[in-house]
Design goal:
The protein has 11 helices and 13 strands. By secondary structure, it is of the alpha+beta class. It has 2 domains: 151 residues, 3-Layer(aba) Sandwich (Aminopeptidase), CATH 3.40.630; 163 residues, 3-Layer(aba) Sandwich (Aminopeptidase). Strands 1, 2, 3, 4, 5, 6, 7, 8, 9, 10, 11, 12 and 13 form a 13-stranded mixed sheet that branches. The two termini are 37 Å apart. The mean pLDDT is 93.
Length: 336
């Protein structure tokens, strides 16, 4: 039986978030409300593709269409918003043997590619997958260039003391010896989101790097997410904001999305160690399995992240288009 790939109907959309929850590749940003927020803030049209084998759903693939200077492009996720991962999410394949699983996955992807080509005919495409997607071959067979990217994941299944003992000695010392009366960590709301966003924006600008993520996008994502949470962790000293991390919590994973930048505050507190540990402590308490440190590509920053003894994980950056079209794609900030 063939795979039927189509734009999700109203009935499909009512079940969409349930399908995301079932998929190993599903993330907060795959959820319907998050897709709509991404579309609104990237001036894009979102096409939620879904595939069925008979009545059984086999995959989701949200595609964002952006038209710029008479050129149609396709993204998943859209550029400029620094959404960590998107791309396809597969369903009901875990119990299949390898041959049947590959065939079903390939047919679903072929159906998606056919729809994209016939309905959009994009001159350029870019997809960034979830770390749970291990096979980039369906894209390579469609002439996408596949570039492996890396992130770190901290295993949250040990108990607190076991987890702490896996950290480097300086991380353990910073966490254990911090004077709990000298600082306060809270999970805030919109005001804290704005503080963290402003701090990150200022840090990027000081380094001559554009940071074009609208704070309204982050606020809307936090407000409208149905099953996931955007959690702004802030650390204050004497009531003054020092630093923060925006975490994305969904399913069994919490991710270090934005923040954790070097603070200019003159305080004798290991700010980021304590913020990361607070996120991990909450993850342990809530029965989560992984703390995704979101990125392992920057040598300088990796020295910090690696002290939590994370596992190196791979995801894929997938790009389609001629050399000339890839040059035009530089019109979009933060494509990769």
């Amino acid at each position: 039986m063939s795979i039927d790939v189509r734009i999700a109907t109203d009935d499909d959309l009512e079940r969409w978030n349930g399908y995301v929850d079932q998929s190993p590749q599903g993330t907060l940003c795959h959820e319907l409300e998050a897709l709509r927020v991404q579309a609104e803030h990237s001036d894009a049209a979102v096409h939620p593709l879904i595939g069925f084998k008979g009545q059984e759903p086999v995959g989701l693939f949200p595609v964002f269409e952006i038209d710029k200077q008479f050129v149609t492009t396709a993204f998943s996720p859209p550029p400029s918003l620094r959404v960590p991962y998107l791309g396809p999410a597969f369903l009901n394949m875990g119990k299949l043997k390898q041959r049947k699983r590959e065939r079903r996955r390939q047919r679903f992807m072929d159906g998606c590619f056919e729809w994209i080509e016939s309905e959009l005919d994009p001159k350029y495409g870019h997809v960034r997958t979830s770390p749970a997607l291990e096979d980039s071959r369906p894209f390579k067979w469609q002439e996408f260039d596949a570039t492996p990217e890396y992130t770190y994941g901290v295993d949250l299944t040990p108990d607190e003391e076991e987890l702490l003992m896996t950290f480097s000695s300086d991380a353990r010392s910073n966490i254990r010896n911090a004077d709990e009366d000298a600082y306060e960590i809270e999970v805030g709301g919109p005001a804290e989101i704005r503080r963290i966003h402003e701090q990150v924006e200022n840090r990027y600008e000081s380094q001559g790097i554009d940071f074009d993520v609208p704070v309204e996008f982050v606020l809307d994502l936090a407000d409208r997410s149905e099953n996931g949470r955007v959690k702004p962790y802030t650390l204050s000293v004497d009531g003054e904001f020092v630093g923060g991390i925006l975490a994305l919590e969904y399913g069994d994973t919490v991710g270090r999305w934005m923040g954790g930048v070097r603070t200019d505050a003159d305080v004798d507190v290991p700010t980021n160690d304590l913020l990361d540990w607070a996120i991990m402590e909450d993850g342990l308490e809530n029965g989560l399995e992984t703390y995704d440190l979101v990125g392992a590509e920057t040598r300088r920053i990796n020295r910090y992240k690696a002290k939590f003894n994370p596992e190196l994980r791979t995801y894929y950056s997938l790009e389609y288009g001629s050399w000339g079209m890839r040059t035009i794609a530089s019109l979009y900030d933060s494509v990769k």
